[in-house]
Design goal:
The structure holds 2 protein chains of 2 kinds. Chain A is an all-alpha fold. Chain A is built from 12 helices and no strands. Chain A is globular and about 65 Å long. The model of chain A has no long low-confidence stretch (mean pLDDT 91). Chain B is built from 9 helices and 21 strands. In chain B, the strands form 4 sheets. A 6-stranded mixed beta sheet of chain B has the order 7-8-9-3-10-11, with helices on both faces. Chain B has a 5-stranded antiparallel beta sheet with strand order 2-1-4-5-6, covered by helices on one side. In chain B, helix 4 runs parallel beside helix 5. Classes of the chains: A mainly alpha, B alpha+beta. Chains A and B meet through helix 8 and helix 9 of A and strand 7 of B.
């Protein structure tokens, strides 16, 4: 067993060294100064706003969807599950092209949206659409697993105790599946925060409007490496916080049995 | 009065059951697993819709496939005690009981606590289900089902999740609760003894049908088929145990008679013995020296089941002997005759009640 320690050490160094390097490459004071550069905080703020909005949409629509898919057996269910998980394996660039083809100015729905006065490309709303498209499968998968693990008799018991399907969903299914839902939400949020390719292709990279933190990092890294590092450091901190909170929720759920 | 007739298909099995349960009556459906017992409960509660049938409770029609009536479970007011109890894991005992109640929180809380107190669980009101013992969970599940004052009560194997010791006490308590509730109760169990203890009537189910329906004693004494004969298994008598001679436990049977057993017990007990362990002899031929149990009994019925004969006896508690045909002919047994039933003390099991 002893030689297993070598690949473990290799994996640990390989995976953590680049992340640590973000913090070690420049003195902390310079990183904080770099955040003061015009546009840096705007990009972070935009990332946060669009990711939170996307998460809200994903949770609002995805929770009942996942519940239905996890608890009802119907014809075509497996196909639907596969289709909505497709963005999970789609290359981000393909996702961006796909969104353009559907919702872009000359896309199959986009022209009609344009007529109705709704414009998505080069608009903050377009960023939200791209994030929602890319991140929702992460939540849907996790939520389906969480609802699928519920004991059906809890739901049955709720019905015989006078609660209809909606009340049963709200009072029994969601609270009992909550740890899994939180995990799914955190994964989707993390994915949305780091989204790059689809946003760039579909919404563009306009500072203050569609330029999220990852896009700002990309724009800066050739000209202002410290600025790019500073933004990266903030994203690392936020991602680590998300990961940590997921572990805490999972640990808590495991303790509660 | 709960009255229903349902027909449905369960995989390979064709389920067809028709029953009436009176107010305050407990009808126990007993049968091997896969007989369709739980499916009957699911159909009555509305959790499953049968292909055809009609269900009515009092003057409310719950299901009528012909007239397109099918009330969802939440509108049937049907208390359901699930197998393994299905308590909500993240709610405390009192929150579980209060779940089916409507109205202000303080009022629901008061009613839940009142019910828990009646079940001797007041001290556990704030406990989560996973910290409760099996017996406590069972009582919370029954209290939860009773809380919204249901029109009928359905119980799916209410005692099978309990260990043997808890089961005896829980069964006595449950019988009292069911009678106090005063609503039709339909109980499902794979254990005939449990059905006999809890059910005013017992329906034996096999392959989706009720093969025989009647009082437990009658079923054991006069089974309609070898299946019922095998399934009904042991005779159950009740009595009070105390230490007897030669290290044996002496049981005074309710209604008269006395038996001994090598098993330890004290106080109210259920005495069980298998019909094939009981021998019958003409009156007045007791061998007083042997370590056998002897009861003066009256023959109530003589029923041939396959190549065996079931003899229903009254001691006056009902018991059943299973004999071969030649033995019955030799003894010239017929209803009304007085005989002596005897069996080995070692064939006598005691279950504390």
């Amino acid at each position: 067993m002893r030689w297993f320690a070598a690949p473990l050490a290799l994996a640990l160094v390989f995976l953590t060294l680049p992340v640590l390097a973000i913090f070690l490459d420049s003195p902390p004071a310079e990183l904080i100064d770099a955040l003061g550069e015009p546009g840096a905080l705007d990009a972070l703020w935009l990332s946060l706003q669009t990711s939170v909005t996307a998460l809200a949409i994903i949770v609002a629509v995805g929770t009942p969807t996942a519940y239905l898919l996890a608890t009802k057996r119907f014809r075509g269910r497996a196909l639907i599950v596969t289709l909505i998980e497709l963005p999970l394996v789609l290359p981000p660039a393909v996702a961006g092209i796909a969104l353009l083809a559907a919702l872009g100015p000359s896309g199959i729905l986009g022209s009609r949206l344009e007529d109705a006065g709704v414009r998505l490309t080069f608009e903050t709303a377009g960023v939200v659409v791209a994030l929602t498209f890319v991140a929702s499968p992460y939540y849907l998968r996790q939520a389906q697993a969480a609802f699928g693990a519920l004991d059906r008799r809890w739901l049955d018991a709720s019905r015989t105790l006078g609660s209809g399907p909606t009340r049963t969903f709200a009072r029994v299914a969601i609270p009992t599946a909550a740890p899994g839902l939180v995990t799914g939400g955190a994964l989707a949020f993390g994915r949305a925060l780091g989204e790059f390719g689809a946003t760039l292709m579909f919404a563009g990279s306009l500072a203050g409007i569609t330029q999220t933190a990852p896009l700002a990092i990309y724009e800066r890294f050739a000209t202002d490496f410290d600025g790019a590092l500073a933004l990266s450091a903030v994203l690392v901190a936020v991602s680590a916080a998300i990961l940590l909170s997921v572990k805490l929720v999972e640990g808590d759920a495991a303790l509660r049995g | 009065m709960l009255r229903f007739a349902v027909e449905t298909r369960l995989g390979e099995l064709e389920l067809a059951v028709e029953l009436e349960v009176a107010q305050g009556e407990c009808l126990a459906l007993a049968g091997p697993s896969g007989a369709g017992k739980s499916s009957v409960l699911r159909a009555v509660s509305g959790l499953a819709t049968p292909r055809a049938g009609r269900i009515a409770c009092g003057d409310r029609v719950w299901l009528d496939r012909v007239h397109g009536i099918d009330l969802p479970p939440e509108q049937r007011r049907c208390g359901y005690v699930f197998q393994d109890y299905a308590l909500f894991p993240r709610l405390s005992a009192w929150q579980n009981v209060a779940y089916g109640l409507r109205g202000p929180r303080a009022q629901r809380r008061a009613r839940a606590h009142e019910l828990l107190e009646r079940f001797g669980l007041h001290a556990r009101a704030d406990a989560l289900p996973r910290t409760l013992s099996g017996g406590e969970r069972q009582r919370v599940a029954v209290a939860r089902a009773l809380a919204p004052r249901p029109a009928a009560l359905l119980l799916d194997e209410p005692l099978s999740a309990l260990d043997a010791r808890t089961r005896a006490a829980a069964s006595r308590e449950l019988a009292a609760v069911l009678h106090e509730a005063g609503v039709p109760a339909l109980l499902v169990t794979h254990d005939f003894q449990e059905a006999a203890l809890l059910g005013d009537r017992v329906g034996v189910m096999d392959a989706g049908r009720i093969v025989q329906l009647g009082r437990a004693g009658d079923l054991a004494a006069a089974p309609a088929s070898p299946f019922v004969a095998d399934f009904t298994g042991a005779v159950v008598l009740t009595g009070v145990a105390s230490p007897g001679a030669a290290g044996l436990t002496r049981v005074e049977l309710d209604g008269g008679g006395e038996v001994s057993s090598p098993e330890d017990a004290y106080g109210p007990v259920a005495v069980t013995v298998y019909p094939w362990d009981i021998a019958i002899a003409p009156s007045g031929t007791i061998d007083p020296g042997s370590a056998r149990n002897h009861l003066d009994v009256e023959v109530v019925s003589v029923t041939a089941v396959g190549n065996r004969v079931r003899v229903g006896l009254a001691a006056p508690q009902p018991l059943t002997a299973e004999l071969t045909e030649p033995a019955v002919e030799r003894l010239e047994l017929r209803a009304g005759e007085r005989v002596v039933a005897s069996w080995k003390a070692t064939a006598t099991r005691l279950l504390p009640l």
